């Protein structure tokens, strides 16, 4: 999971937004700034489509270097290359759409989404209470890659309708999200199954700050 905020990327200008929720996957390339394990950085790099294509086609390049006499023939086999790329993208990395509906029980999926709402609202309540916000609507936006057979990649951000803007989170708020959002029974992998089954990869948890009671604010600050 990568907590996205202007404080965690080198290119915060890429996070400018005109509407909530702001989509990230397929729209911008984020350059992580700090605190990310190598595995997560590799996973974000792997999300770059062109690099995946180059990796798939690398054997053709090697073949042309080894069998130089056949290099021209190999280079003139675009249909084979395209077919290999399509197979890798749709069968090796992803679950075909016609098979997605049955990968998780619908009732279990509903329970998972309900839990996501509960956890997301609790996180937003603590963030709003900590910032002493009294108006506006906050959104916890959870967006995932649709690649099913490798490590899930999840972008999480807090977005405000005031502006609108993607909030610059403090270190404490980032830690809160990492600790409270995912965990048994709703892990990143389980959410990905739910998203795959419904072919929907962006989840938006909204909280009207005015709905937070004084008791909830005190409890959030204390906890």
TrEMBL record:
Keywords: Membrane, Transmembrane, Transmembrane helix. This is Uncharacterized protein. The chain crosses the membrane at residues 50-67, 73-93. It comes from the Bacteria. It comes from Cereibacter ovatus.
């Amino acid at each position: 999971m990568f907590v996205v905020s202007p404080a965690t990327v080198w290119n915060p200008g890429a996070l400018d937004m005109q509407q909530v929720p702001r989509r990230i996957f397929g729209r911008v390339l984020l350059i992580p700034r700090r605190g990310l394990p190598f595995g997560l950085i590799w996973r974000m790099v792997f999300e770059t489509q062109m690099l995946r294509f180059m990796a798939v086609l690398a054997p053709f390049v090697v073949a042309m270097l080894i069998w130089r006499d056949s290099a021209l023939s190999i280079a003139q086999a675009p249909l084979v290359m395209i077919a290999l790329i399509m197979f890798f993208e749709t069968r090796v990395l992803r679950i075909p759409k016609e098979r997605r509906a049955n990968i998780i029980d619908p009732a279990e999926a509903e329970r998972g989404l309900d839990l996501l709402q509960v956890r997301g609202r609790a996180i937003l309540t603590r963030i709003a209470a900590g910032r002493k916000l009294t108006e506006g609507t906050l959104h916890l936006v959870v967006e995932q890659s649709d690649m099913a057979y490798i490590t899930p990649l999840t972008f999480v951000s807090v977005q405000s309708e005031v502006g609108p803007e993607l909030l610059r989170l403090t270190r404490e708020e980032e830690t809160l999200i990492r600790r409270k959002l995912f965990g048994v029974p709703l892990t990143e992998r389980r959410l990905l199954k739910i998203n795959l089954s419904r072919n929907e990869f962006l989840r938006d948890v909204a909280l009207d700050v005015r709905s937070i009671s004084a008791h909830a604010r005190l409890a959030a600050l204390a906890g």
